[in-house]
Design a protein that fits this description.
Oligomer: single chain
Order of helices and strands: HEEHEHEHEHHHHEHEHEHEH
Structural class: alpha/beta
Length: 334
Amino acid sequence: MNVRRRHISAVALTAVAALGFGTLTACSSDSAAAGDTGTFDVVASFYPMAFLAERIGGDHVHVTSLTQPGQEPHDLEISARQTAQLEESDAALYLKGLQPSVDDAIGQSPIATKIDAAELTALEEHGTEAGHGEEHGDEHGDEHAHEDEHADEDGHGHDHEGGDPHIWLDPVKYAEVAEGVGKAFQKADPDHAADYRKNTATLVKDLKALDQKFRAGLANRKTDVFVTTHAAFGYLAERYGLTEEAISGLDPDTEPSGARVKELQKIAKEDGVTTVFYETLVSDRTAKTLAGDTGLRTDVLDPVEGITDHSRGEDYFQVMEANLTALRTALGAR
């Protein structure tokens, strides 16, 4: 195995542990940090990347997530110590365009294997609404579709120049990424290539089964339209013939305009929308306000950016199946 050997002092390990790295422990001891683990050390940017690394790597990898469980990944700012810690790992797995500070840190790191999930499948442009503006003659369509490209007044906006990064919410695209990650692991750690190949095939099979569940579960429905807090579900909507109407854009911190709120009220009435979805990692205030003003109910549609005690499941597959149940109810699927 071509894993670099390192020697880190006990003091250094203590300092690293104090950083608050979210470490997935299926492949290592609870206290281990990236580096000097005797396994293939992978730093993942946030949960969907860490999940792939664990499922594909199995017992041969030690996975460290830069984003804490419960932390909104869009808001992550990498510390100097976390940046230094990247140098102690064998590989970095990230999704360029989602977390700018991670992109910068990995771009400047000398780490040997850098795996950008955004290069493993085709990215597309999704704005506030996914293909709904023309149907309603939305005169504000261009404004809303591009509002996520500009920083808000507090400077927290994110410019997703490469397209919508939320590819993991489409099981088909996530499977494409998994295949690319598997090949990268095989190349970087050829001693365990056979196991990585086998684990990748199993994961892809599971993702294809999830895709079929969504196709069957959403086949017969009363409406195609669903409303969410931010535009994370564009790929999922496109995959299954749905229309996502988001209160804000790709950035969950963006506040909607008054015109957008009025537009959503109109859409909800015209298209038989029953539910306004909110997320587990961001405030539900705007969703509940809109729901109250329109007489709709609220429910959770989880973008699976992190698993917490409030998640409707313990891993990606369980939460996605909970999302399917929520969508079936909201869309009147039979």
